[in-house]
Amino acid sequence: MATITRLFDSHTEALDxxxxxxxxxxxxxxxxxxxxxxxxxxxxxxxxxxxxxGDHNGDGExxxxxxxxxxATTGGLLGGGAGLLAGLGMxxxxxxxxxxxxxxxxxxAVGAAVGAVAGGATGGLLGxxxxxxxxxxxxxxxxxxxxxxxxxxxxxxxxxxxxxxEAILNGKRGYDAATRGEAYRQTGWTRFDxxxxxxxxxxxxxxxxxxx
Length: 212
Prior knowledge:
Blueprint lengths: L1 E7 L2 H13 L7 E6 L31 H8 L13 E5 L3 E7 H16 L4 H8 L4 H12 L3 E7 L4 H10 L5 H9 L15 H10 L2
Antiparallel strand pairs: 1-5, 2-4, 2-5, 3-4
Helix pairs in contact: 1-6, 2-3, 3-4, 4-5, 5-7
């Protein structure tokens, strides 16, 4: 089973891609979404406080992002509900700041962060993407894309479904690592730095306009 990932500059385009994947018959447990939330497009309160990563206190506070270990405990519940998007919740991933996520990749990213702390392995989203089968180059580009305000959609695909699912993601303006990586390198970028400061909302706005 192959992992297909695309980077979207707009979370609305990514949400549309997820909806189309599900409408085409892909089970939500094979799909994952990880989105930058620096502009607070997802507050958590819209879920009514009843989800595993939602606002349980009703005050807009994220009670998962305050500890990686707690995130790992609840991470397996990501993506529950009628479809993947019903499981959207907020968490913190090293090097990215606040993200909105659901599905298996987010759960793996939180677990990878815990493993990195314990054993020195590559953690966070970078480690999760490598574990999913992406090359080091691809994992670095996709992680950097989320840091710069983007949204990742990843889907596990059987060999016979790969072309069809890639076409769906590409049709929703999803970018592969080769295309976006070349654009990043033209500005002097080399690889994702999990210790770098997250992008500000102003930087993210400038980044998004660069590709429009």
